Hints:
Shape: globular
Family: Belongs to the UDP-glycosyltransferase family.
Organism: Digitaria exilis
Largest sheet: 7 strands, parallel
CATH class of the largest domain: Alpha Beta
Protein name: Glycosyltransferase
CATH topology of the largest domain: Rossmann fold
Strand content: 5-15%
Radius of gyration: 22 Å
Pfam family, one: UDPGT
CATH superfamily of the largest domain: Glycogen Phosphorylase B
Strand order of the largest sheet: 3-2-1-4-5-8-9
CATH architecture of the largest domain: 3-Layer(aba) Sandwich
Distance between the termini: 25 Å
Keywords: Glycosyltransferase, Transferase
Amino acid sequence: MAPSAMQSIDGELTGSARPHVLFIPSAGMGHLLPFFRVIAALATRDDVDVSVVTVLPTVSAAEADHLAGLFEAFPRVRRVDLHLLPFDSSAEFPGHDPFLLRWEALRRSAHLLGPLIAGAEPRVSAVVTDVTLTSHVVPIAKELGVQCHVLFVSCATMLSLLAYVPVHLDKKAGEPEHGVGDVDIPGLRRIPESYLPQPLLDLNKLFTKQFIDNGREIVNADGFLVNTFDALEPVALAALRDGKVVAGFPPVYAIGPLKSHTSAPESNEREPTGSPVAWLDEQPAMSVVYVAFGNRNAVSRDQLREIAAGLEASGFRFLWVLKTTTVDRDDTAELTDVLGEGFLERVRGRGMVTKAWVDQEAVLRHPSVGMFLSHSGWNSVTEAAAAGVPLLAWPRGGDHRVNATVVVSGGVGVWMEHWSWDGEDRLVSGEEIGEKVKEVMSDATVRARTARIGEEAAKAVAEGGTSYRSLQEFIGKIKET
C-alpha cells in the first residue's frame, strides 16, 4: 500500500457472500450529506457490506462532526482513511474556492485509491464515487474489474447538462468565437448561458476542466444514483434513460428524496431551551419563514443587511441560519456587527438568528414552518419537496439556477429569476425581499402545489414506489458481481 494512504477497519468483518460497496465521497456538506444518507440506508440492511473512504484532513468542522456521527451510529460501516498527497494550491490556484481545491487535491491523489480498493477485505464488489472524481475513479475501477457507480448529488437536469456539455463544446469548437453559450439539451430543454455555473463560462478555469473531464468519462460508469424522484423530474429522467441526451447512457436510479437515517429510535425528549426547534415549538402553525443559504455560500454583508430589513418589513416570524464565510471554521463574525445595531432587539420574539448547524430536515418538517427562503442547493430543494414546504428560490451560484428551473417545473415553489447571484453587483433591496416573502407566504395556490409534490415524494420512497424500486434495482445490480 502507498505510504500516504492508510486503511483502518472498524467493526467485525462479515462473510464475503454479501456484496461489498466502497463509497468515495468528496468535500463539502452538500456532497457529503447525500453520501451519508445512502450509506445509512444500506448500512441498515443485512445483505450489503459498506465501507467509506474518509479523506483527511476534512475541510470544515461540519464534515468532521458528521463523519464521526456516521461511524458512531453505524459501527458496521468500515472506515478507510485516505491521507492526501501534499498539494501547494497557493502557487497554482491562488484565491480559489477551498472546496474546488479539495476536489483537485483528491484528483491528484486518486491513484492511491487503487491499492485501497484492491486490498480491501472482503473483496469490493462495487465502488460508488462522487461525480467530481469520476474521470479518475471509473478507469481505476474498470482496471480492477469492479463495478463503478456515481452518486450524483444534484438534480437529473444538472446530470443531463454535465453529460451533454462536452458534446456541445465539441460542436462549437469550429465556430469563430468559441464560447459556451446557451446549451440546448436534446430531449430536455435549453439552458441559457446565464443559468450555467459561473466557472463554466471560462474554459480555462479549474472547475471547467474538471467538469468537462468528468462529463466525458461518465458514460463509462455502470450506473447513476440520483437524489430525485420520477414525479419531480419526469422529463429529465426520461431523456437520460431513453438515450436522448447521450446515446447509450448508463442506467439512472432515481432514489430520492434521500432522508436521514439513525440507528436509534427517535427520542421523546424536548429540545434544549433556546434551540431553533424549541423556538419553533412556540410558534403558530405555518407562521415562520425559514431562511438558509447552504453551508458553502457566504452572502455579502450589504446583502445580509438587506435580507434583515426584508424579514423585518415582512411582518412574519422567521428562523434565519446565517453564514458569513465559505468555510465554517473561519466564521467568527458577531451577529450584531453583521446585521447592524438594534436589529436583533427589534425582532426579538418573532425572529431567531443563529450561526449554529441545524437539522434542516427537522426544521422543514416542523408544523410552524410555512416557507423556505433558500439558495436552491439541491439538498435543500429535495428536503423542501419532501416536507411539502414552499420554497422561494434565490440562487447564489454553481448549479443553483439549474436547480431553480426544477423548483418551478416540479411544483416545489417559485424563483425570482432577476435576483442577483455571486459576482453580480446589484443588491436586492429589503423592500423587494419583504414584499416577495409576504406574497409567497400568502399564496394558497403555491402552498397546495407544494403539498401535492410532498405527497408524491412520500409515495416514491414508500415500499413499491418508484424510488424504492430504483434502490432495489441498484442493489440487485451490485449483487451480480
